Each structure stands twice: as C-alpha cells, then as structure tokens.
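Ops channel
N.P.: pipeline sanity check, posting one input/output pair.
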C-alpha cells in the first residue's frame, strides 16, 4: 500500500528536534484535520482526496500510533495491495481480548464551524474495529502487521458477500501465482490449508460462501470490476466465462477479451465476448499509456468491430450495471446469452434483481 503524500506525523518531527507548535496552531485555527492524536492532514487536501486516500492516511496513522496493531480482513488486504470492492469503513484489526472487541472510538477531529469543517465531521473518519481472534505470526507488509495472506482470504470469504470476497480472493490468487504458490489455472482450494479450514468451519452458511468464492477465484481475473462481474454472473445464473481469451483475424492479433463464452444461450453456437469498462480505462493517465481518452475510445471501437466481424456477439457494461444486476442481466440477454440456472441461488451475493 502506498501512502499518498500529505500525512503530517508529529512523532516523526519531534524525533528530528522540530517543534510542532505551528501544527497545533493550524489545527486550532481549523486548517488541519486530525486523523488521530499526532497525525494530521491539511483540510483542503483531505477534502480533495479520494476515499481510499483518506483511508490510507487513517490506516497509516493507526498502525503507527497503536502498539501491536494487527490488521485483518479487507483492511489487511488493502494494506497488502490486494484490491477490495469498496473502501473499508473501519480499520479492522484482531484482538485476543474479548473486552476489547468491537468498534473503537472515533479519532477524526477538525475544529471550527466552517461548512468544510462541518462536512468533514458529518462524513466522519475510519475508526478501529476489533475482531476477536489470534494471529501468532503476522505478515509484515510495508511496515504493517497483517494476518497472513491465507488467513486474510479465509476471513473475508467466511464473513463477506460473494461480491466482496471474490474481489479479494481473485487478488490473492494473483499474488499467490506471482509467488509460485498457485498455478495460473489453479483454484485457491488447492492451496495448502485452505480446503481444510473451509471444511472445518462449523457455520454452514459461512462454509458455503467460502467454498463458492475460493473455488471461483483465479489469477486470470485482472481487476476488481472483472471479479465483481463474475460474482454477478454466479448470482444471476449465467455460466462462468473463459477469461483473457485471445482473438485474431486475417490481419493478425486483435486483442484479449475480459470474458468469453464459447457458446451462447438456448443452444446457440455463436460465442459471446464480454467487456467490463471501468472509468479508469479512459480517465487514468497511467492506464492510457500517453494516449488521449478519445484515442482509447477509437481503438476500443475498432477492436470491437473486428471481433464482431468474426461472427461473435459483443457486450459491454460498467459499474452501474453490476451494482444493479438486473441491468447486467438484460445486457447479457441482449448479447445472446441465456442463464444456465435460476437467479438468486446465492442469496448472500448481491441484492436480488429488480
């Protein structure tokens, strides 16, 4: 996890002999947001920051200020650089003391009655949330103590909906593949300790949730949007597609698709290509590789036309369609796919269509 610039750490300043009087004056003047005692961010920077940047500041402050803090669940995944579906609402950690479990007191503070100050107080920060458990050998990742990767994946799979847990499980599968612990086409259920832990869970619903997520997880899923879409396919009753399929025509290589169903619905032999279009593809300069959004859009159109010319169906969707799975269902039906089973077989996944 990279900490965005802007976190002011008074303990670090004091160690260098610099006084913090000016910081305290700015805080009293309402110019700084206090994330927790000793850690600040300029109000203007806080207001402009994305939610995940605010969470990263809060996570860094908590880890440095609270001795022995061990991160868990989606917070641990976030710290490890593994994608999560949404910015966590709490900094989740584990504790062996039952008296300490539960939600910690809010630490975010900003003084003054300006509209900006009131807005920040209303939105709140990211308090600690302690879960009862033990971790004798935490992983140290970038200075953060986290539950081990396998344990983190299991915890998320046991406690979250498929739409959340599959994003983390796919990210963990990619990480394990990079480490040589998982084959590119393997299942997380094959990783040492995972299948035994799943079978040993006494809660039938949690066990079933984990079985589905960890069996579906694959290193081939390359983004949170792709993983989120795959959770929706499972909920809506569509077959899981092939991932990262290569296409070529007489002119040569066309490109690689996010999703590929070799056979459509109702006995149709026409294959269907699916693409998840996240906004970042067009707005994130790093992902555009120097090309303008217009150039990216034009290249995507040419690529789609060449694939359609092969006789295949083509469907595009984005975050709003997956957030409302009924919209995604209509898109897939219009593209030539048919569900293989009834929707809603996994009631803990996503809201029911409609």
């Amino acid at each position: 996890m990279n900490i965005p610039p802007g976190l002011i750490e008074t303990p670090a300043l004091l160690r260098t002999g610099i006084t913090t009087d000016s910081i305290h004056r700015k805080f009293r003047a309402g110019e700084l947001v206090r994330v927790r005692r000793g850690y600040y961010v300029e109000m203007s920077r806080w207001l402009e920051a994305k939610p995940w940047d605010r969470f990263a500041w809060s996570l860094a402050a908590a880890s440095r200020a609270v001795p022995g803090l061990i991160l868990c669940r989606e917070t641990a995944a976030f710290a490890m650089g593994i994608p999560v579906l949404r910015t966590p609402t709490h900094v989740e950690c584990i504790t062996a003391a039952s008296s300490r479990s539960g939600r910690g007191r809010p630490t975010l503070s900003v003084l003054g009655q300006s509209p900006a100050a009131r807005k920040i107080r209303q939105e709140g920060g990211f308090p600690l949330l302690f879960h009862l458990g033990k971790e004798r050998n935490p992983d140290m990742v970038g200075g953060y103590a986290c539950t081990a990767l396998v344990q983190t994946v299991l915890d998320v799979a046991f406690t979250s909906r498929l739409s959340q847990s599959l994003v983390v499980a796919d990210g963990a599968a990619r990480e394990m593949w990079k480490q040589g612990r998982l084959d590119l086409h393997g299942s997380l259920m094959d990783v040492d300790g995972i299948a035994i832990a799943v079978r040993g869970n006494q809660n039938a619903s949690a066990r079933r949730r984990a079985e589905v997520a960890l069996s579906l997880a694959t290193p081939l899923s390359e983004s949170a949007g792709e993983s989120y879409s795959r959770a929706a396919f499972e909920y809506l009753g569509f077959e899981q597609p092939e991932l990262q399929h290569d296409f070529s025509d007489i002119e040569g290589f066309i490109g690689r698709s996010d999703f590929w169903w070799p056979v459509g619905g109702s006995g149709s032999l026409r294959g269907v290509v699916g693409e998840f279009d996240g906004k970042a593809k067009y707005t994130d300069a790093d992902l555009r590789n120097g090309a303008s959004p217009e150039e990216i859009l034009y290249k995507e159109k040419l690529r789609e036309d060449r694939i359609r010319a092969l006789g295949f169906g083509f469907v595009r969707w984005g975050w709003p369609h997956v957030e409302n799975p009924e919209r995604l269902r209509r898109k897939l039906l219009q593209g030539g796919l048919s569900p293989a089973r009834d929707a809603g077989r996994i009631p803990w996944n996503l809201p029911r269509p409609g």
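N.P.: looks fine end to end. The chain has a mean pLDDT of 88.
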